[in-house]
Amino acid sequence: EKGGYDSFMLKEIYEQPQAVRDTMGARIDQEKKQVILPELNMSDAELAAYDRLYIVACGTSMHAGLVGKDVLEKWTRVPVEVAVASEFRYRDPIYTDKTLMIVISQSGETADTLAALREAKKSGVRVLAITNVVGSSVAREADEVIFTWAGPEVAVASTKAYTSQVIALYLFALYFAQVKGTLAAAEIAEVVEHLQELPAKIGAILANVEPIRQFAQSIQDATSLFFIGRGLDYAVSLEGSLKLKEISYIHSEAYAAGELKHGTLALIEENVPVVALATQPDIYEKMVSNIVEVKARGAHVLGFALEGDRDLAKSVDGVIHVPATTPMLTPILTVIPLQLLAYYTSAARGLDVDKPRNLAKSVTVE
Ligand code: M6R
């Protein structure tokens, strides 16, 4: 059932080219290079009228939402707030008749996410769900559903569900931009082409895991680790950090790199491992100066850069290159080596990768 892999997690990591392809599937008009979302019950005019979005989810699904926020705001200019469901459900959110709520849940059964959905519906807010399970509570109760077609995810650590959720968010953001007219047809076509290249690019990353396996071995006895990045790289850092602590039990934190100076830099000393993501062109120089700061304190830095980058290697101890794509889509690629880092570290420590202690696959109680 593990298809020759030693764990479900590794199998699911390798299923990502397919999961991404299936989630895009019929939602792309090949000729027009546009997005089609026939599953939406609302008209284009109804959708275009929304001027405020909440994205509510837990854990990894919330991290997918953080990528979604940046992308939605960039492409549609509609403000988006991302909230963890366990907080959101007890808040007094500001709703108007132009507020749309998006809930994201792989299982569709997470108690807090479901409760937030119910609260919103009670207030008359339309809820769009992104979920992986047909027939789940979230799928049944939401007004609108965009399914991720990742197939069953068994490992507690979510991998292919995350990448599929991010794809669903890209598709929704593009469609929303299409109906709002905030992106030109040519701009949409360009992103669509980049989207279609992602499965092959994920495949290329998965074909060269050795550098990441070696770095995992080097950190297997570490007591603490830092992930740093800016913008979308920060959103991905949060996911990389969660994945690592969840299955390797090594303490780690993700920081927006510009925040280091405001406290965390005090923790950086000789040989503290730092994973530094520098894949976003517009903030690249700023990121490099943050890397230089941690290097100066003795950190052992693994940098992430785009293919073709020759500069980062000068400032770090090792570099993982990810294939280049349009900057908004890079998270889908950057997250793959981070998932592998968590996996190989957990495996090197001899832990049960698929069933980490204290955790359940689906959190159906508060
Ligand atoms: O099924 P859901 O997407 O609602 O689950 C949310 C979280 O419990 C889940 O993503 C959790 O954070 C994962 N174990 C992370 O790998």
Number of strands: 12
Q: Cα distance, first to last residue?
A: 31 Å
Instruction: Indicate the multimeric state.
Output: single chain
| Unreliable stretches covering 5 or more consecutive residues | none
Mean pLDDT, to the nearest integer, reads 96
Strand order of the largest sheet: 4-3-5-6-7
Number of DSSP helical runs: 13
| Estimated structural class | alpha/beta
What is the percentage of strand-forming residues? 15-25%
Bound molecules: 5-amino-5-deoxy-1-O-phosphono-D-mannitol
Helix content bin: 40-55%
Question: Taking Cα atoms only, what radius of gyration do you get, to the nearest Å?
Answer: 20 Å
Protein name: Glutamine--fructose-6-phosphate aminotransferase [isomerizing]
Domain SIS: 43-182, 215-356
EC number: 2.6.1.16
GO biological process, one term: UDP-N-acetylglucosamine metabolic process
Give a quick set of tags describing it.
single chain, 366 residues, alpha/beta, five-stranded parallel β-sheet, 13 helices, 12 strands, binds 5-amino-5-deoxy-1-O-phosphono-D-mannitol, EC 2.6.1.16
Describe the structure.
Keywords: Aminotransferase, Cytoplasm, Glutamine amidotransferase, Repeat, Transferase. It is found in: Cytoplasm. Its main location: cytoplasm. With 366 residues, the protein is α/β, with parallel strands linked by helices. It has 13 helices and twelve strands. The chain has helices at 8-14, 16-24, 44-48, 59-76, 85-88, 111-122, 137-141, 160-180, 185-206, 210-219, 232-248, 284-296, 330-348, and strands at 28-29, 34-35, 52-57, 80-84, 99-105, 126-131, 144-147, 224-229, 251-256, 273-277, 300-306, 318-322. The strands form three sheets. A five-stranded parallel β-sheet has the order 4-3-5-6-7, with helices on both faces. A five-stranded parallel β-sheet has the order 9-8-10-11-12, with helices on both faces. β10 (273-277), α12 and β11 (300-306) form a beta-alpha-beta unit. α4 (59-76) packs antiparallel against α11. The longest helix is centred in the middle third of the chain and has 22 residues, at 185-206. The mean pLDDT is 96. The protein binds 5-amino-5-deoxy-1-O-phosphono-D-mannitol. 5-amino-5-deoxy-1-O-phosphono-D-mannitol binds at residues 58-61, 105-107, 110, 113, 156-158, 246, 362-363.
